[in-house]
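[audit] Reproducing an earlier prediction to check determinism. Same input, same settings, fresh worker. If the tokens differ from the archived copy the diff job will pick it up downstream; this log only records the rerun itself.
[audit] input (373 residues):
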Amino acid sequence: MVNKRASIFFLVLIAAVALLLVLAAAWGETALNSPLDALRALFSSEAGTTKTIFQLRLYRGLCAAGVGGSLALGGATAQGLFRNPLADPSLLGVSGGAGLGAMLGIAILGGHGAALFSAFGASGTPGDWLSVFGLMAIPSMALIGALAASFVIYRWAVRQGQLSISIILLAGLALNSLAGAAMAGLQTLLLDDVHVTRAIVSWGFGALNDRGAGHALIVWIGAAGALASIPLIGLELDMLASGDADAEALGANTARIKTLALAAIALSTATAVSVCGQIAFVGLLVPHLVRRIARPRHRSLMLLSFLTGASLLLLVVVIQNGVLPELSRRLVVEHEGAARVVRQLALMQPGVTTSLIGAPFFLVLLMRERRRW
């Protein structure tokens, strides 16, 4: 039976993502351009500053859409896998692994890797070794950390061919705590280096500026892999909602479902976090919004969550990089103080913005449904 509400919501989200992506490429800090001008510049055969600016904005928009969609899809999958509406991709320890990898990359590029390399008997200059990756150095280190955390959790959780959800949660919490302690200790050692410390803090709250084609490619490879899992696990996650025994009685291979779901969560979260840093509450909040609007089953829930997450983060980019700078320019003549405040709001990291939006909303949702939960 077709869910008409979900179908309408799907069409609305497709239109919203397309429109917001065009606006993300058209609107920027320097000036307010029309979407038509942006499209002309992007597809122009002539190179120039204007075309370069629009291309960079488009890459930022593509990264925002991919990251928002991946985190939301990971959240919907995690909540189905753990049968818990409070589940989040960060529970798997992937975010902690990515954070530690990125911090190590920043420290090495900042000239603090010699002691680390010498401790393991490695030769050469660490900064030169890592600089081979260029702009992709930090995302590469973060991706390695995230995938390493995923591999460790999987190895711990599998016993006699069965994947234990309880061990996944406990191992994820342990790895997050371990990674958090390591990051805190490393950051303490680097406090004297202002530039490195600032880069670490910036990455910790998410960053979407200065993103290129390579960043967008990494994000969308992870997103494509996670989206490809929907036909394989969507129906089975509905069966799993009643418990392993009932799902197996209906013919579901629960070990396969859990492995594929865990792989999809790890892949989408690892690539998203490795490129854009920690962006909170998207994976936790978006699936709840989709359920309340469309009430879909898991196949539709996962796809709609992806599109909603992409729309949400694109909207943040459009507001912070287009709407707020333009509002600041218009206020500066008559209300200089208000213009300064608006300008500072536009400089906030996307992770801070999503936390400011998501945390109060989720607290209200929790208060309303605490009895049922």
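[audit] rerun output stored. Observation attached for the diff report: DSSP finds 17 helices and two strands in the chain.
[audit] end
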